[in-house]
């Protein structure tokens, strides 16, 4: 019985890993159950034994992937760190997450465009990002004369866009720079400091 359970768990894990790759590459509309079965090295009947529909399997994968970063964002923004420390930690965590999951941005954006309301609900649940906490910190620092006025949402959009764009445009970035995969990773590691410096320089007086 124990051996069977281990085998069952192993097969299910293979399916989930295969489904993640296929959905990341093709999205739900382009993916077929046969593609997932082939990637997992099993037959289609066995795949349907574990997961009866492509939609249910996709939902599991999307929920897992979509929520990889939001808890970190909330934790960083709600922490006792200074605004400058929050910016540095946010950028570092964001780029690390994307380096570990390079297809994640396209996967998430495709689903948001395909099914906006449902996708956003799955990503955020009922909890919006704590932009108000960022606004509070900004207001205090502006009054002290340490930074220029900026809305919290503008600051967040600036950081996210600078972190995410190279991953969305990776083929173009690598073609323009003639960078190998290894060189691209090194470039993204460097951007942790580059983006932080750019953001801080843009708001500091």
From TrEMBL:
One of its GO terms (molecular function) is DNA binding. It comes from the Bacteria. Residues 32-51 bind DNA. The keyword DNA-binding applies. InterPro entries: Homeodomain-like_sf, HTH-type_TetR-like_transc_reg, HTH_TetR, Tet_transcr_reg_TetR-rel_C_sf. Residues 9-69 form the HTH tetR-type domain. Keywords: DNA-binding. This is TetR family transcriptional regulator.
């Amino acid at each position: 019985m124990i051996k069977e359970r281990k085998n069952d768990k192993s097969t299910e894990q293979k399916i989930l890993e295969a489904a993640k790759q296929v959905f990341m590459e093709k999205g739900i509309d382009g993916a077929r159950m046969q593609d997932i079965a082939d990637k997992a090295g099993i037959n289609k009947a066995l795949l349907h034994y574990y997961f009866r529909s492509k939609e249910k399997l996709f939902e599991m994968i999307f929920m897992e992937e979509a929520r990889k970063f939001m808890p970190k964002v909330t934790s960083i923004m709600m922490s006792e760190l200074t605004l400058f420390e929050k910016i540095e930690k946010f950028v570092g965590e964001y780029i690390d997450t994307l380096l570990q999951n390079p297809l994640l941005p396209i996967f998430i954006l495709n689903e948001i465009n395909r099914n906006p309301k449902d996708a956003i609900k799955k990503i955020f649940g009922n909890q919006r990002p704590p932009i108000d906490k960022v606004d509070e910190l900004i207001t205090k620092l502006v009054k002290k004369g340490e930074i220029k006025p900026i809305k919290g949402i503008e600051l967040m959009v600036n950081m996210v866009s600078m972190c995410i764009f190279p991953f969305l445009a990776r083929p173009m970035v690598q073609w323009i720079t003639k960078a190998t995969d290894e060189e691209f990773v090194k470039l993204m590691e460097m951007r942790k400091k580059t983006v932080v410096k750019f953001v801080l320089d843009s708001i500091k007086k």
